[in-house]
Amino acid sequence: MNKRTSRSNRFLPEYVSRFKDRHGKERLRYRRKGYPSRYFTAPLGTEAFREEYRRFNSPEAIAEAREEAQAERTVPGSIGDLLRRYLAVPERLGPSEVTQTKVRQILERFAEGREERPVKGIRFDHIDAIIAKARIKTVDEKGRKFGGIEAARKLRKELRRFFAFARKLGWITTNPVDDSQTVKVAPGERSSGFYTWTETDIAAYRAHWPQGTKQRLAMELMLWTDQRKVDAIHLGRQHIKAGKFAIRQTKTGKLLQLPIAPQLAAAIDAMPASDALCFLVTEWGKPFSVKGFGGWFREQCNAAGLPRCTAHGLRKATMRRMAELEMPNKTMKSVSGHSKDDEVARYTEAANQERLAEGAIKRLAEWEMSNPDPRLDAKSAQRTENG
Hints:
Layout: H1 3-9, E1 16-20, E2 26-30, E3 38-39, H2 47-56, H3 60-73, H4 79-87, H5 97-111, H6 124-134, E4 138-139, E5 145-146, H7 149-168, H8 199-208, H9 214-225, H10 229-232, E6 240-241, E7 244-248, E8 255-259, H11 262-269, H12 290-303, H13 311-324, H14 329-336, H15 341-347, H16 353-370, H17 374-385
Antiparallel strand pairs: 1-2, 2-3, 4-5, 6-7, 7-8
């Protein structure tokens, strides 16, 4: 660069240089390491120029460049092309960022190594093979676990939506996932998931961690709100309105109004005064991350002699309690925020079968004794006469 060019660039914004193109026209160019190179269309000093500069200099410019580069490398009509189009609208993946991230990871793992395969060449037997592989449990080099029956089910569910999008685009006429086999549970394969706390477990934890400790408050908060860790750990006094928690679920986006049980109120009141926005904070006074809280609570359960117990198991314990009290599904869903009955059924599998059966038989017996139906007796007698 000669001295005249250097002086001409001295008063330009950072990362902007001036040059003449092959036609002798003066141009302005944005160049910054790690960012895409761009040419300005607006004159220097105008508001339009400043807007272009802000856009070129923003972190979003990197994402745009990656998207453009990916589009250039993508084979039209391929799985990679379909994935790029599908992910362009995050709302297709779910109602919340948490769900969208999980679905994106599922589809990206599916597409890995298959980016250039044409979508129209995918058959149902290909889907069957992919789902069968997803059922195999594996652990990667970082210790992360993949696979299993639930992973296979989730993959098939998302692939059905994924290829339904391809059908809407007119790339295929039928959805190959519709003709694939459903994911059936083999004998002994089904897992009950997280261990459900029993009443003995709850009493043991309370005996070890008394009122006024953060450990006790954490357990009561999870038990009496029946919410996921991501929502429960961020609750604070600002979420209390008219004696109820107003909770916007991160995963579903639902707004729940939950009364505060006396046991939970007592645990909150027993804690030392604090200006923190969250009831539960780290030793440094900062809000917990979801993983951080899970690990910390795991240690508190171990200290109480409850190695099988987890934070999520408390959510299942509340569902178990409601099932044992024979509350209807709609009532249970009003607390947990679940949308479907099959989700409730999965969470209430640990309900005490003996206790429920005893109550059911007792109610049946009382009903028959207090409500004799003469029609039944008449039909019985008629069958006896007809021999």
